[in-house]
Write a structure and sequence with these properties.
Blueprint lengths: L1 H22 L8 E8 L6 H4 L3 H14 L3 E3 L4 E11 L4 H11 L7 E3 L4 H13 L4 E2 L6 H5 L8 E3 L8 H14 L9 E8 L2 H15 L5 E9 L7 H9 L4 E5 L2 H13 L6 E4 L22 H4 L3 E3 L10 H11 L19 H18 L4 H10 L10 E3 L2 E3 L1 E2 L13 E3 L8 E8 L26 E7 L20
Parallel strand pairs: 1-3, 1-4, 5-6, 6-15, 7-8, 7-9, 9-10
Antiparallel strand pairs: 2-3, 11-16, 12-13, 14-15, 16-17
Helix pairs in contact: 3-13, 4-5, 13-14
Length: 487
């Protein structure tokens, strides 16, 4: 017994010494920053993910690694970025399960966002509960998160949405058009709305109605009708809109319904003074001819002068290089079977998504660590005029985050929203452009801007998703009323 006891004591001492020595050995330096993402690689949301933030994530990963990676002071080395994506099949429960595993299994340093409004709100809660930074992406319903931002202290939303500042800018445009009419006091703009029967559609509809109420009788909502999120038969709604003398027809719906609404109106030869649809209108693939493999192309003749949310283009400051890089990257990806490059650009979110990823990259560099608490603090601290924490330098220019009131974010108390001043535009309109009739930013015609990258050399006409906001961001004045559908 005594001999065995001595043996056990000796073994315990050896183990204690071994553990002590082991704790003195420095941890191995990682070679890469492991980033996880749960995205809709299949199902009805695939068309949004594949043409919105998905390719931007891939381009950013490629660009960072080509540049040698992200320098992390803690390890005194550059780390490459390794993004691993799981498919949620456009199902929020599946996304929840995958993302929860990612933020609890200790494998991933950071995570990137899923596709869609309700998905991102779920992800914001999961990440904040598990103290993981989450940069926003495809999300059209920010008011809901904005009003509860104190519940998501690790979430930094970047995409513009109905009340940030799309409806405000839209009504500036509509009011300008109305003021220039023959008798604005007696010529109200009658508005008919269809909207997804979900969080996204309801918020856009409510935001429009609230903004219209500020202008009294000048803007009249003649009807607002919910439709199934992926429904496409809107014949009855279009006929009813005509019977109610509608000037502006709005479709606050996802791409399949938005674009089907345009196609149906054209087929029925139903014309309005203005049409606003989206998301969907903001994708360049809408210019593809009808019947194309994507199943959603309408051709430039039908998209001409249709309005949508966004907005930016290559004539926006600092954007040209991003367009070229994105088109060059999309020329090589294998998930696009036929048309590549320019037809894959998203004129709502792509520029903003890339800026958000640049903010994450620069916050990691400033923090000098992969610790999510420290990175979150850096995202919150950036502010105009700060000598120690200046705004992040991105493709949008200088950007920073605010709390829901527009004040500086208090790290730990609330998440952040990209400052309103940082966006390149809010409302876009497809306009027909030729080499001899091309708008300059100040509205002067007759001098062509540089031909957009990715347009065929021999092309003498094309379409641009022009920023029609009033003010400095405008790339072309809006056109009202829009022309009738072609014969």
């Amino acid at each position: 017994m005594k001999k065995n006891r001595i043996l056990l004591i000796s073994l315990a001492v050896v183990l204690a010494v071994s553990v002590g020595l082991g704790s003195c050995v420095p941890a191995a330096k990682p070679d890469a920053i492991k980033i996880g993402a749960v995205r809709s690689l299949s199902g009805p949301l695939e068309v949004i993910g594949n043409f919105a933030c998905g390719p931007v994530m891939e381009l950013w990963e490629q660009a960072v690694n080509a540049d040698g990676g992200i320098y992390v002071k803690e390890y005194d080395k550059n780390l490459t970025v390794d993004i691993e994506i799981r498919d949620d099949m456009s199902d929020n429960t599946t996304m929840t399960n995958h993302l929860t595993d990612m933020v609890t299994n200790g494998t991933y340093d950071f995570v990137l966002p899923p596709v869609g409004t309700e998905f991102l709100q779920t992800a914001a809660e999961i990440c904040s509960d598990n103290e993981y930074v989450l940069i926003g992406a495809e999300y059209g319903c920010g008011l809901t998160i904005q009003n509860t931002l104190n519940q998501y202290p690790y979430f930094f939303n970047i995409l513009n949405y109905s009340t940030r500042n799309q409806m405000e800018k839209l009504f500036e445009i509509l009011r300008d058009w109305q003021d220039r009419s023959v008798d604005p006091a007696t010529t109200p703009i009658n508005v008919y709305i269809i909207y997804n029967a979900n969080l996204h559609g309801n918020e856009y509809k409510d935001a429009f109605v609230a903004e219209a109420a500020k202008y009294g009788g000048n803007f009249t909502i003649v009807n607002a009708v919910p439709v199934e999120p992926l429904g496409t038969n809107v014949n009855d709604q279009l006929y009813e809109a005509v019977s109610l003398n509608t000037n502006l027809f709005c479709s606050f719906t996802y791409p399949h319904t938005s674009l089907a609404t345009i196609a149906t109106a054209a087929e029925l030869d139903i014309n309005f003074d203005a049409m606003l649809v989206g998301p969907g209108c903001n994708f360049e693939y809408t210019l593809l001819p009808s019947g194309h493999w994507l199943g959603t192309g309408l051709g430039g003749d039908l998209m001409q002068e249709v309005m949508g949310f966004g907005a930016w283009n290559e004539y926006s400051p600092a954007a040209a290089g991003v367009v070229e890089a994105l088109i060059n990257y999309l020329t090589d990806v294998d998930w696009l079977e036929l048309e590549r490059g320019r037809y894959s650009v998203d004129w709502w979110g792509a520029l903003t998504y890339y800026a958000g990823l640049q903010c994450l990259q620069q916050a990691i560099e400033r923090a000098g660590t992969l610790d999510n608490d420290d990175v979150r603090a850096e995202l919150a601290a950036a502010w105009p005029g700060s000598p120690t924490n200046p705004p992040f330098d991105t493709v949008l220019g200088d950007v920073w985050f605010t709390d829901a009131n527009g004040d500086q974010v208090v790290a730990g108390a609330t998440g952040g929203l990209l400052a309103k001043e940082c966006y390149a535009g809010q409302i876009g309109q497809w306009q027909h452009v030729t080499e001899t009739n091309c708008w300059l930013p100040d509205g002067v015609t007759g001098t062509a801007r540089a031909k957009p990258y990715g347009i065929a050399d021999d092309a003498i006409e094309w379409w641009i998703f022009e920023v029609i906001d009033l003010g400095d961001n405008q790339t072309a004045p809006g056109i009202y009323p829009k022309q009738n559908w072609p014969e």
